[in-house]
Amino acid sequence: MGFAGKTAISTGAASGMGLLFAQCWAAEGGNVLMCDVNEPVLMEKVAEINAKDGGRACGIVCDVRDYGQVCAARDRAVAEFGSIDLMANFAGGTARRMLKVDGSLEFPDVPIDVYDWGIDVNLKGPFYFAHAVMKQMREQKSGLIINIGSITGAEGDGAGTDYPTAKSGLMYGLTKSLAQYGAKYNVRCVCVSPGPVLTRPAMANMKTLLGRAADPQEIIDLILFIASDKGQFINGTNIMIDGGRDAMGRWH
Ligand SMILES: NC(=O)c1ccc[n+]([C@@H]2O[C@H](COP(=O)([O-])OP(=O)(O)OC[C@H]3O[C@@H](n4cnc5c(N)ncnc54)[C@H](O)[C@@H]3O)[C@@H](O)[C@H]2O)c1
């Protein structure tokens, strides 16, 4: 797909779509810096990629909430591979689920530090990475930033307020702003917003017009298309990939 010798950074790369993206990018000949907080699993996955033909993988422990660690990840990618062509912000999730908060608690009863985590990982992390990698992309005069939104960013969620708040910030404000700033440096920014994706079996319970959840590969294939020569005119927009859930209206 034309990714040989190009470099991607993938966050949340120890599992789910961040990992699958790294595997597919490397299989296409690209090099990838994989970032996650789960060091043992991350390093195992890096080794698996490097045991196969294709591009090289490197792993770095990076909490996307920590700007110093984000800059260290950017510097490592440039030192190892010489450029940053694609920044993919996969790290994220609903704070209530990720931090195992009692599901019966209502919005004001959930401790504020739970929401801090949700806003920081889902919104501040991609903002930090955009700020850090834009310096490199501006110098290169090329680059692509992929944010990962969610159907929940369009729907809201009264039971998990941090997540839709953060995701809608990515889908609209951050993605459009980065595209506006980046244009004169040939840097694009696109948000890809999935509906339910089978990185967890429970996602099969979420309704869509097509009556199923997405295979993770369907999401990664869209991102690879956006990054490929054929996807170069896609910029500054949010693309829903949700089996029609956003269009369900009263069929919901
Ligand atoms: N799975 C779905 O149905 C779905 C739907 C819409 C959007 N999304 C979004 O897609 C993205 C990937 O989802 P997934 O289900 O593949 O994820 P996942 O839960 O399988 O993986 C998330 C990864 O992020 C890492 N992580 C957590 N906190 C981190 C931090 N502070 N810094 C760095 N890494 C951290 C975890 O260790 C984990 O490896 C997320 O942003 C999610 O919100 C998922």
Shape: globular
- Helix and strand run: EHEHEHEHHEHHEHE
CATH architectural name: 3-Layer(aba) Sandwich
Looking at this structure, what is the CATH superfamily?
NAD(P)-binding Rossmann-like Domain
User: What share of the residues lie within helices?
Assistant: 40-55%
The quaternary organization reads as: single chain
**Number of DSSP helical runs:** 8
The distinct ligands, each listed once, are: nicotinamide-adenine-dinucleotide
Low-confidence stretches: none
Radius of gyration: 17 Å
State the name of the first-level CATH class: Alpha Beta
The largest sheet, given as strand count, sense and whether it forms a barrel, is: 7 strands, parallel
Structural class: alpha/beta
Q: What is the fold-level CATH name, i.e. the topology?
A: Rossmann fold
Q: Could you give the topology of this structure?
A:
Layout: E1 7-11, H1 16-27, E2 31-36, H2 39-50, E3 57-61, H3 67-81, E4 86-89, H4 95-98, H5 112-140, E5 143-148, H6 151-155, H7 162-182, E6 187-194, H8 216-227, E7 238-241
Parallel strand pairs: 1-2, 1-4, 2-3, 4-5, 5-6, 6-7
Helix pairs in contact: 1-8, 3-5, 5-7
Bound molecules: nicotinamide-adenine-dinucleotide.
Residues 11-12, 14-18, 35-38, 62-65, 90-93, 121, 148, 150, 194, 196-197, 199, 203 line the site of nicotinamide-adenine-dinucleotide.
Question: Can you characterise this structure?
Answer:
The chain is an alpha/beta fold and 252 residues long. The protein has a single domain (7-251), classed as NAD(P)-binding Rossmann-like Domain (Rossmann fold), CATH 3.40.50. The protein is 44% helix and 15% strand. It contains eight helices and seven strands; from the N terminus they run βαβαβαβααβααβαβ. The chain has helices spanning 16-27, 39-50, 67-81, 95-98, 112-140, 151-155, 162-182, 216-227; strands at 7-11, 31-36, 57-61, 86-89, 143-148, 187-194, 238-241. The protein has a seven-stranded parallel beta sheet, with helices on both faces. Strand 2, helix 2 and strand 3 (57-61) form a beta-alpha-beta unit. Helix 1 (16-27) crosses helix 8 (216-227). The protein is globular, with a radius of gyration of 17 Å. 48% of the residues are buried. The structure holds nicotinamide-adenine-dinucleotide (NAD). Nicotinamide-adenine-dinucleotide (NAD) binds at residues 11-12, 14-18, 35-38, 62-65, 90-93, 121, 148, 150, 194, 196-197, 199, 203.
